[in-house]
Specification:
2 domains; 8 helices; 20% strand; Peptidase_U57; Sporulation peptidase YabG
Length: 290
């Protein structure tokens, strides 16, 4: 076995696909392919999987995720129709409008899912800037990036997981998690920059992350209430919905749970105002003439 191989763990019945990040003596450090999970396992516990069984963008092509994207697209169309009807009713004219969706700053501890996330943001017309940042460096990165980018929505995600064999340390202890403390640190830095949860929305966490600690630190939405494995692109779906939810509207997790694959066991949060603004009249793109 070597770095880059796709593997499953025998002791877990091969339930999760991983990619070997590196090998340390007789142990492999693993990053989830379908799920945002960081793990390690003895080499003898691993079974190599055929790369042809691993899609370039694993579960992003699953029926559940395709349905999430369809619902996001439908909600955007409905918002546009609502805007146009409002203008027509008040002005009795065919004037158009322009859109200012919320801007996303996406920090990801997994470069593969960062690339996929940026692709989907583009397809959904969500203005976004993404950076691959190892989880331990996210707080410092936000301290530098927030004043430059001035986002409406911040996504802080990557890989996480509950550590085994931590005697005397239960799931309430942050030291029981691989990266939850790093995510908490990042959220705290972001909240020092902007305290208002409606002025800057934060979506934070990964698989099995310490949900309560992330909310206490200042996140609007976080994983994982039931400490389960979350779909790798669930945080993106929440951010995309918030980007196209009017600043006049408040949404809760109950309003957007059907946009996620893992549901309320995977993500939760507090009521939050959207970050989308409509402008009138429509902006005309004028051509320069000599």
């Amino acid at each position: 076995m070597r770095q880059g191989d796709f593997v499953t763990r025998k002791s877990y019945g091969g339930d999760v696909m991983f990619k070997i990040e590196r090998i340390e003596q007789l142990k492999a450090i693993l990053r989830g392919v379908d799920y945002r999970l960081l793990a390690d396992a003895p080499l003898v516990d691993l079974t190599i999987s055929n790369p042809t069984d691993v899609m370039d963008h694993p579960r992003s092509s699953s029926p559940e995720f395709r349905e999430s994207l369809r619902r996001l697209a439908v909600s955007q169309v409905q918002l546009q129709e609502k805007n146009q009807l409002s203008i027509n009713h008040k002005q009795n004219t065919n004037k158009t409008y322009f859109e200012v969706p919320g801007k996303v700053l996406h920090l990801d501890g997994d470069p593969t899912y960062l690339r996929k996330s940026m692709q989907i943001y583009g397809e959904l017309r969500v203005p976004a800037e993404g950076f691959y940042i190892p989880e331990a460096q996210m707080a410092d990165a936000l301290h530098r990036l927030l004043p430059q980018i001035k986002p409406d929505i911040v996504v802080v995600t990557g890989h996480d997981g509950i550590l085994k064999q931590r005697k005397g340390r239960g799931p309430s202890n942050l030291s029981s998690y691989k990266n939850s403390q790093n995510f908490v640190n990042a959220v705290q830095i972001a909240r020092q920059y902007e305290r208002n949860r409606d002025s800057m929305i934060i979506v934070a966490g990964a698989c099995q992350s310490h949900f309560e600690a992330l909310l206490r630190a200042g996140a609007n939405f976080a994983s994982s209430p039931a400490r389960i494995l979350i779909h790798a692109l669930d945080p993106l779906c929440i951010a995309a919905k918030l980007s196209y939810t009017s600043v006049k509207d408040t949404i809760s997790m109950l309003d957007i749970v059907d946009l996620t694959v893992t549901g309320l066991d995977g993500l939760g949060g507090v009521e939050t105002r959207g970050s989308y603004r409509m402008g009138v009249p429509g902006i005309q793109h004028l051509e320069d003439h000599d």
